[in-house]
Predict the structure.
Amino acid sequence: MPSKQSDKKYIHDFPPSEFMQKKIFIGTLLAISVGTSHAQVLTHCKDHEVTYFSCKLYSSKNIVSLCGGQLHEIAADARASEMWLQYRFGKPDHPGLIYPAHTKKSISRFEGEYRQGLGVSLTSIHFNKSGTTYIIESSSSPEADGYFEGVRIVKNKRTTSMSCDQPISDLRFQTLAELLDPKPR
């Protein structure tokens, strides 16, 4: 007489331990996809673009992003290359300011600055548009205002600073700032 256990069929045609493993695996995939889609909301950059800097601004729905082509496209003289860079600012999926409007050779409209030493660091990329200077910045200084990551807008000698709530920047931002620095040190 066969045992009752050997005749038992599982709902999903595999033992409970395999069923639980598959549920955990699917749950993990869902968590990763939800986390990824959440992170994607924090940038105006498209999937095929490099996000050099991006963040949601503190106490705002606005996002600031610095999007561009791959660093390997940069020639010895970054301004002469086909490399492109674009600043985008505004609500998720609806940037109100895109500079420059066209990407072709747009990197020539940006300058960078990278300084580090004695506990102070500054990484920034800036551009001028209609008499206003936009500075995308990551800096730290124990003597000054501590740490800042965000955008500073300078118009008529007045500076408005908007700090990041959740910044996304990495070494590519620093590398790009160094390449665009007209006075490397």
The first strand starts at residue 50 and ends at 57. The beta strands are 50-57, 63-68, 85-91, 94-99, 111-117, 120-129, 132-141, 146-155, 158-169.
